[in-house]
Amino acid sequence: IYFATEADPNLSEKKSVHVKYEAFKPFGDYMVGYFTMSACEEWTGKVITIRFDPANSEGTFIIGQAMFVEA
């Protein structure tokens, strides 16, 4: 997941969190993944853009739901 903030509105590698597909857990017909955004020290201030890059492979990815919760 890449993100941009008001203070730094450009998407970049330093403002990103990566999770290997193997970390996703099956939930019925779906896969559920958790991203700990606070692990990135750039995750501060007001986030204005989120970009999700699901994988470096072919195929279709459907995001049925995204939630942001305070840790």
Supply the key terms:
globular, two-stranded antiparallel ribbon, 71 residues, mainly beta
| Number of strand elements | 4
Helical proportion, percent range: under 10%
The first-to-last residue Cα distance is 17 Å
Approximate strand percentage: 15-25%
Main sheet strand line-up: 1-4
- Summed up, the helix count is 0
Shape: globular
Account of the protein in words:
The relative contact order is 0.29. The strands form two sheets. The chain has a two-stranded antiparallel sheet. It has strands at residues 2-5, 25-27, 30-32, 47-51. With 71 residues, the protein is mainly beta. It contains no helices and four strands.
Put the structure in a nutshell.
With 71 residues, this protein is an all-beta fold. It has no helices and four strands. The protein starts with a strand and ends in a 20-residue tail after the last strand.
Strands, helices and their partners?
Layout: E1 2-5, E2 25-27, E3 30-32, E4 47-51
Antiparallel strand pairs: 1-4, 2-3
